[in-house]
């Protein structure tokens, strides 16, 4: 018999007896994700529940009304939803990358390795039997049973069978047997007392188990396996005209039509043997890598793809239900920056259904909730941007956007243009540039291997940092990062290679004032390689390193501020307007308060960050922190409030020369607006937000010297934030209406 560890007690009963009254776990966080990668599709009455890489969807199949759940607007444990199952009372059990969720329609309960016997937080599949016994399979190869509020852990790793790296599928048959599909070539059957093993072909990788009458159908990637009693029949995919692109799921309709989802589309096998093939050329499938299939009460089939959303088929017509809560192109975000109009610009990179790398420039106007994605066609380029590795966004003083890749791309808010590098640039910065920076005079510096380029007004200048090493033995130089300070100096992290008499690598912090270089040796310890730099307004330079070093350079000395036993990789850093240092790492986001030396770590288990690999951060005009992640999109965080959007809590001193910009304060029916401090004739948008972050009132004026009177008698008595947006800047004030 399989080894079992039975845990019974008040602690286990507590988990299912007492619900945590959770609606929004992290009310001062918001997630922007896209849900085109479909992990799961499950029917519940007239609703279709869809698990995606960007959260959980509940779709009314009659009205198409859609509800989106993520970890910031609900108690969902994680935005990567891998599995969904329902008990007889309608409760939803939701598996994610980071724990198990229980949802009764109002309240959520989350289970993980900290508050349950789950040995792994990654959930592979969930099955609920007709007797309301819940079976949970994990990524770590474990099986958990919840029966009458008692949790039982089954650990079969010590038995003579292939290591179960992951439980991808669990199903129950008509005789109440439980079937468990392992990541490798075996299936387990549990009859309530004993476990039986069915060994499959070596190439089998169990993705799905489908019970049809007295037969068990197994989608095993390289083949389809049919188990009946003790006999096993293997159906080679080629026999059904399936290419070797993976077989993920089988679905058998009441009329014995067989549907098979594969990496090369969908195949429908009729009872008479006819075969019909559907792919991205003859259906609404946007991707041929199809993972999931489910049928709704209206007879429509729903297909979930790997990276291109859903397709739906009623037997004649195809359409595509929306699976994303926003129009973010992809969840892999590599860099972000805000322009002078408050527009977020980001670089996104992902792999398409064929496994090719794609890069995209995206933008988001949060005031108007407009996402845009710029393809090569929209940019007017003749070459495919999807093959380009974009790596840097710069915004100059004229609000032009600059993007660094195989060529320099400029966007002047109307037109996209390409600025080629010099003909011999590969000898200057290598095949691809590393990083870039811009100074106060709009000079653009592009770093690479083995040198640096400067660009301004059509002129390229070659800058060779080998000359600053003061060492004739230096063979190679790599400029790892670059930034500017408030005195218009550029600061570089340089890596030098010396090959004689032995190979030595060392790193310098280099100051470039436009004419001269000055080098300062970085005291790297424990092979902690410098990665990124940021400059304080007072002139201090901060350097983040791999394997956990954070140096401050005060012009003379390097001081390490990172805990000695923390070897987290510190990838990128930035400084907000309150002099806090924000550090992007492989274990969430760190805030280092420079003024009081306090370090705070935000990660998936204590914040609204959807994934611990944080790649970038940006700061908007409302005090929000925008956090880019791998796999999981963008998180937005405001420290000072429990709502979003959030104007800054510290208001202006209202020191305009003649009148305050908004008065009287408090006010009753009328307020006066003074726009004389804005650029004359520019358009100013004025927005009133309540304490819940809701937009209450909005209007626009042309800036002039006239006092504008606004009737506010239609606004309820309370405290409001009034935000002024214009091309020349943004301001926010707090006003009391009585």
| Total helical segments | 3
Give the termini distance in whole angstroms: 74 Å
Global structural class: mainly beta
Question: Count the strands?
Answer: 64
Mean pLDDT: 84
Task: Please tell me what the overall shape is.
Answer: globular
By CATH, the architecture of the domain at 1-155 is named 7 Propeller
The biggest sheet amounts to:
5 strands, antiparallel
User: What is the CATH level 1 assignment of the domain at 1-155?
Assistant: Mainly Beta
Strand content: over 45%
Helix content: under 10%
CATH homologous superfamily grouping of the domain at 1-155: YVTN repeat-like/Quinoprotein amine dehydrogenase
Q: Major sheet: order of its strands?
A: 1-14-13-12-11
The residue ranges in which pLDDT falls below 50 over 5 or more consecutive positions are 1-23, 158-162, 646-659
- What value does the Rg take, in angstroms? 29 Å
The third-level CATH topology of the domain at 1-155 is: Methylamine Dehydrogenase, Chain H
